Amino acid sequence: MIDRLALNSDRINGREDLHTGVVLNSAPELIAQARTGDHEAFRLLFERYARPVMVFTYNLVGRHDVAEELTQETFVRAYSNLKELRDETKFSTWLFGIGRNVVREWIRSRVRSGGIDLAGAVADQEQSLELSPADQLAGKELNRAIIVALQSLDEDRRVVFALKIFNGSSYQEIVEITGFTLAKVKTELHRARADMRHRLRGYLENR
Amino acid sequence: MKCDQCRSTLEAYYDGELEDEANLKMALHFEDCAACALLLQELKGEGEVYLGYEPPVEIKPELWAMVQSRIVEKRPALSTGGLDRLQTWLRTNLAMPRVSGWATAALILVAIGLTVTFMKYVRFEDEPPVVSFAQLSKHSLPAQKPNVLEKITEGDNSKGEKLKSGLKVHQTSVSNRSKTASRAVKPGHTPDQLVREAEQKYLAAIAMLTRTVERKQTRLDAPTVSRLEQTLASIDRSIADTRKVVQKHPSDPVAVQYMLNAYSRKVDVLREMVGR
Fold first, then answer.
1. Which of A38, B21, B89, B260 shows a CA-CA span of 20 to 30 A to A65?
2. By the 8 A CB rule, do B158 and B235 touch?
3. What domain range is A187 assigned to?
4. Which of A13, A24, A77, A83 to probe the B interface (max B CBs under 10 A)?
5. In the predicted model, what is the mean pLDDT of residues B25-38?
6. Domains of chain A: total
7. Structural domain contains residue A91
8. What is the mean pLDDT of residues A53-57?
9. Chain B residue closest in CA terms to A168
C-alpha cells in the first residue's frame, strides 16, 4: 500500500514516471494483480523486464527487429500463462524460460523454411555498417564484434553464455531456464568462453 | 590444492558459484601459484571486455502498445482446480471490493462497533473482583437461556478458563454488564473468532479506503503524501509487531487491544486522506 502511495505521489507531482512503479511494486504483488486481468500491473512487470528479455533475445538472434518481435511474443505468452507460474519469486526465471523457447521456435521455423544462417546474416549486416571514429570510441565496434562472435556459437552454448555473461544469471537459474543439467551448463559455458576468447582475441590482446 | 583442481573450478570461482570453504582454498592457492593467478587475471580481463558490451536494444513505447493490443482480449488462463477457483473468487470479490462510499462508511462503522464492543468486554478485567464468573452466570442470566459467556468458551477450555478468571464486574452493574456481554458476543463465537472478525473488517475497510485514497491522490501535494506515508509506515510496523504478539498469545486481551488500536489508527489516517 505504501509502495502504491509512493508511486502515486510522483503522479501528483506531474511525473508519470513508469520506473517509479517498477521500483516500488514487488513482482509477486504485481503478478497477483495481473492474474486478475489487471493490465496496469502487467504493464509494470513489462516495464521491469522488457529490457533484460530483449537483450537476451537480441543476443540470441542478433537482430533488433526480430528481438523486438520475440520479446513481444514472450510477454504475450507470459500473460496468457500467468496461472502456471507456481512461485512468484521466480517470475524472472520463468519469463526467461519462455523467452528461450520463443527464440528456439523462431530459429527452428527459420531453419525449416530454409531461412537464414544467423551467423552469416549478422556478419553481413554488421559488416555493411561503416563505423566512424566516434562510433569506435563509443565501443560500437566492440559491440559488433561481440554480437557477431555470439552468433557463431552453437545455440545451446550461446544461450548459456548470454544468460551468464550478459544477464548475470546464476548457474542454478540457467539450469531452471534451459532445463539443462548443471554439468551441461558448466561445460557449455566453459566451451563458449573458449570460443569467444578465440574469436575476440584481437580485442582481448589489445585491451 | 593442486593446479589441476584449481583450474577445473577456476570459472566457477570467478562466477561466484563456489562455497566459502572452496573460495578460501582457491584464494590461498592463487597466493602461491603465479600461473593459476595469471589465468584468473585473464578471466577477469575478459569479463571487463564483456562489461563494455552495450547491445543496441531500445524499448520503444510501441512495444508495450503491441503487447497490450494482443492481451487486451485475453485473461490469464485459469486452471481448473477448486482451490484456484476459490482463490480467484476471493481475490476478485473480497481483496479489492468495488463498493460505494456509503458502503465503505457502513463497513467502517461496523468495524468500529466491533472494536468498541470487544474493548468493553476486555475492560472487565481491569475492574475490582466482586462477583465470580460462576455467580454471574447463576444470578444475572435467565436460567432457561444458555449462558452466552459459557458458549464463548465452549470447545476451548484453556482460553475459557483464563477469560472466566479474568472476568470481574461491579456487583451493582452485574445485570447491565452481563447484558452488554450478551450483546457483544454472538452465541457460538469464541473470542478468537471475534478478534479475527474484527481484523477482517478492518482489513476490508483499509483495502477500500486505500483504493479511494489512490483515486483521490491527485488532490494532495507531495509533502503531505510523504508525511502521511511515514505515518502509515509507522502504523504498519505497529500492526505487524502486535500481530506477532497476538499470534503468540492469542488469549492476551492487552495484545489484542493494541493490535486493533493499530488497525483503528490506520483507518483513521486513511479516512483523513480521503477527507482531504
1. A38
2. no
3. 153-207
4. A83
5. 93
6. 1
7. no
8. 96
9. B15
